[in-house]
Amino acid sequence: MKPAVFDIVRPATLVHALALLGEHAQEAKVIAGGQTLVPVMNFRLAMPRLLIDLNTVGELAGIRRDGDVLRIGAMTRQCELLRDPLVAAHAPLLARAVPHIGHVQTRSRGTVGGSLAHADPAAELPLVMVALDASFTVRSRDSERILPARGFFRDALSTELADDELLTEIAIPVAPADVRCSFRELARRHGDFAMVAVAAQRSAGGVSVAVGGLEAVPRYCRKLVDAIGRGAFNRDRLPELIRAELHDCVALADLQASTEYRRHLAGVLMQDCLGEVLAS
Amino acid sequence: MNRNSIGSSPLRKEDNRLLLGRGRFVDNVHLDRMLQGAFVRSPMAHARIRSIDVSAALGAGALCVLTARDLPFNDKPWAVRYWHPSVRNGLPKFLAIDRVRYIGEPVAFVVAGDRYEAEDLAALVNVEYEPLPVVANVDAALAAEAPSLHEEWIGNVAAAFGHSRGDAAGALAASAHRVRRRFNFGRQIPLPLENRGVVADYDAERDSLTVWLSTQVHYNVRQNLASILDLPEYQVRVIAEDVGGGFGSKSRAYPEEIVVSHASRILRRPVKWIEDRFENFQATTHSRGVDTEIEIGCDGDGRLTALKALVTVDVGAYVHTSGIITAEVASAHLTNAYIVPNFQIDVRCVGTNKTPIGTYRGAGQPEAVFPMECIFDVMAKQIGLSAAELRRRNMVRPSDLPYLVGTSLLGIQPTFESGDFSALLDLAAAESGYSENVEVRADGVRVAWGLACGIEGGGFVNFETAQIRIDALGNVSVQSGMTSQGQGQTTTYAQVCAETLGVDFDRVSVRMGDTQLVPFGRGAFASRGAILGGNAVRGAAQALRASVLDAAAELLKCDASGLHIAGGLIRRASGEATGLSIGEVARAVGPGGPLYAGQPALETQHVYSAEQPATYGLSVHVAKVELDPRTGFFRLLDYLVGHDAGRALNPMIVEGQIVGGAAEGIGGAMFSEIVYDDEAQLLTGTLADYLVATAPEMPRIRLAHMETRPTTNPLGVRGIGEGGVIPAAAAIANALARAIDPRRAGHEGPLFSLPLKPERVFSACRMAQR
Amino acid sequence: MKLKCKINGAAIEANVPPRMLLSDFIRHELRLTGTNVGCEMGVCGACTVIVDGEPMRSCLMFAVQADDCSIRTVEGLAPDGNLTALQESFSRHHALQCGFCTPGILMTLEALSKKNALPSSAEGVREVLSGNICRCTGYQNIVDAVLALPR
Hints:
- Chain A is α+β, with helices and mostly antiparallel strands and about 280 residues long.
- In chain A, about 30% of the residues lie in helices and about 25% in strands.
- Chain A has 3 domains: about 5-55, Uridine Diphospho-n-acetylenolpyruvylglucosamine Reductase, domain 2; about 60-175, Uridine Diphospho-n-acetylenolpyruvylglucosamine Reductase, domain 3 (2-Layer Sandwich); about 180-280, 2-Layer Sandwich (Enolase-like, domain 1), CATH 3.30.390.
- Chain A has 11 helices and 14 strands.
- In chain A, the strands form 4 sheets. Chain A has a 5-stranded antiparallel beta sheet.
- Chain A is globular, with a radius of gyration of 19 Å.
- The N and C termini of chain A lie far apart (about 55 Å).
- Chain B is of the alpha+beta class and about 775 residues long.
- Chain B is about 25% helix and about 25% strand.
- In chain B, the strands form 7 sheets. Chain B has a 7-stranded mixed beta sheet with strand order 3-5-1-12-9-10-11.
- Chain B is globular, with a radius of gyration of 27 Å.
- Chain C is an alpha+beta fold.
- Chain C folds into 2 domains: about 1-75, Ubiquitin-like (UB roll) (Roll); about 85-145, DNA polymerase, domain 1 (Orthogonal Bundle), CATH 1.10.150.120.
- Chain C has helices at about 20-30, 85-90, 100-115, 120-130, 140-145, and strands at about 1-5, 10-15, 50, 55, 70.
- Chain C has a 5-stranded mixed beta sheet with strand order 2-1-5-3-4, covered by helices on one side.
- The chains are: A alpha+beta (about 280), B alpha+beta (about 775), C alpha+beta (about 150).
- Chains in contact: A-B, A-C, B-C.
- Chains B and C meet through helix 1 and helix 16 of B and helix 2, helix 3, helix 4 and helix 5 of C.
């Protein structure tokens, strides 16, 4: 399983990388961690003529706090999310999700931006970003825009990114001091993509809950969030509200789970996660 | 006990080189002027080949492109070691001639400078296919008007046979209790971590061929290479020095080694082909895939009266040179460890447009034990006996031995001649803490135990060779006709030789996996390493010991019966040193020495031939599951294997085999499934879709040992390569069935299809609620 | 394309096609055949090496991406043949059978060990090994071998 012939360019700066992408958008692919792209190339399911290597663009990596947001460079390795105390302190929901992502050897190379741009329906990072209401900075040679995570994922393996655009930075609202989080996942084995996963967070400002692996894109449970609102909430209402939320979901079916079973699992995990964050 | 003894656990001689990264796996072979090739394989499940155009590939620089029309040996037969009389041909081609019958079937072979280039060029080979209607599964194969896979496979049945004793139908009809169920053991693959691979080096001047091959059966491969390529057999050398796992996937000769060797002959350069994992999924034999409809009857006391079963094996598109072993073994062992006075077991091997079936650790025993052990638990509920007690009442007892099972297998009448099955069952139950109660926790999670017993047969294929030689310095060198894929034979054979001959373990070197070492051998499969290979070493060591002592007696002018060998030195019965060492004896006996009588060295060669080639033993698996009925997800909290390995040559290695086998059995039960769709497209073609157990999923396996000695072989050993796998799925299914409802039956159906996917378990939970 | 890196401490200069995988570069250009290849899609872990201190799948990197990197393979653990404590513990605990997965597992553990990040519980060890498939041992003895190491 060897890849087809290609050329590779290894730019040192973001400006150069964007210029290359602008010029070669049709025939080029960017390579970040390679944990998803290289297998696909080894199978010759993708045969780009040119690879633009982002691993040499140092300025794309890094984690810093900027006022009330936590900024994560797109090329930040997934393992850094586990190591950097800023993440544990200011994005505890993210910190809880990372151990579920792949394995030690994939987190050492795989990147935050790479996972988000790939948009696998069962990936943990897209789900968490939707739950956290993160914003993505997306740049091309000539433009820059900020896109909300809730709206970035269009379909399975499809995002708002244009051919000549790069996701460069992720901004996560710093978690309030009274935040309670819960992240639960059902997978066949440790480190596998989720069959279903739920990320939930609650503070005085309200609750947030999202489901991943259930549909083509992570589902921000707007109806449920609005119904729960702020302040006191009777948890006995959860089963009925969860049913209402999931009523119109378009659940995926695959070798691991049928649509009905997946929807059922989502309901169970949502009950457990919300039960955890709503406990007084 | 020191490391020179059988029964001790010296660290393995194999470890150093493997830990240092100095293993000699086939892809590590680099020869001068070596080329690399890639196969063009069928992407169609069933099609006629209209044409193959290799001109583009040749034009782009391929050094050679072989298709069937380039092979002068298409009509040469495979050398098959054993073939069930009912099999109606269906052997594979070397390269597809006019038709392809499964995705992955080799069609052409392209040679270039390296594998990258070879893949580029293989993509340029233009094969024109004309699709044929696909036979996607057994039902489709058996339907009236189904497309025919092979002329000889009438009704797409590759083979059909049966075993019977007494009057099963009559006895069932008269039984106080009857239970009938259907079981499906899903298709699985052996999945060694090292894929297949071959380096072939044909030497034109000597008309000789050297082949490095990741294989378990080097002599059978040699025989095939010689007869198909028309080379003198002793001019063909097959080397399998380090092999990264086999598990039955490498226990046959494949078309690829024949074709690659031919390419080397044409090009007069070494040619390497290393299978990648994508190919391994398609073109290395699959296994399992057994559907069993089974009915058992009991009298009022829970004693089996009869068993009736239809075993259907989905054999895929061809029958490889290892025949239909899985079907034979599964049907011959369906009665497991029990006395069944009447049985009727019918077997049919059905062809489909899928990858051909071969053997996989257990080779039919897991497939037989799963239905029998699960239906036993159902019967136990029906009668109102405990699952353990029902088994005790039906197990073959020591007073029944020797017990003829009543089936026949590979020319053998399976016979239990040793072992105390009930005692092992009791031991396993006691040591594990097995109980038939269910614990229900506050959060609804349910915890329960399940057990299953599995008969394991080892040996089967007779004859194995060992050769032992002593040099002038007293070093001992053992050559064996076996191969190793990590089972530790280098170490255990050194122990057997050390103890039998009377020398230090550290002075014994052992080599195998090279047909040049001894003229005849077989290899590692069917758990025969200890039974056949170990006893061959023992026989050779005994004969050599006698030779040494005879020669020493002559030199010392005394009686040989008054001498023995200890630590490589000749000693008198009293223990007194004689001053003579085995090295000095070697010098005396060799050319130019005072005792020279025509032999080139102090050596013996011994072919061990077993009177009873098959040795049976029991293993009992006890599993504790924790099940969340809200989701169907479960995990194993505890797991114990009760085992009777006979004499353990090296207890550390024996335990390693059992634990490793259990992991494969547990992983197979929980995760592993090869899935084809209705067009015979392989849906689980990568490691992302085909799941095996990884470290976090495995429970700690506890072991309970019992030792009874079989009488079938001088060492008193049993095969232990497969017992770890055999009853695992049944033990877990029984635990889940109990966890869901310990008293009533009727909900287990979804659990009788492997693997035990969470959705299936959830269905069973739902069924129990109604 | 040119590439300069350090392999087991030795400076290496090479000129290789961009598409050559790091695993193939190590095995076939440098003839360091201790690192094995099991799947070429980043699942089995047999090809794990250490790159700049981190355990990575060498089948998912192109050799040219290792430019300016420091790589350690299994051959670099005990270059003079004297087994490290980890390797010795593997042998003592029968933590290998066919040995094909062993280098990948050793390098994963070595990387963690160098960071003092080796877990001290069986559950923790199993978790860090989740990305390495072994078909022979059932993992149990590997866990024991790691837990037996002096801390």
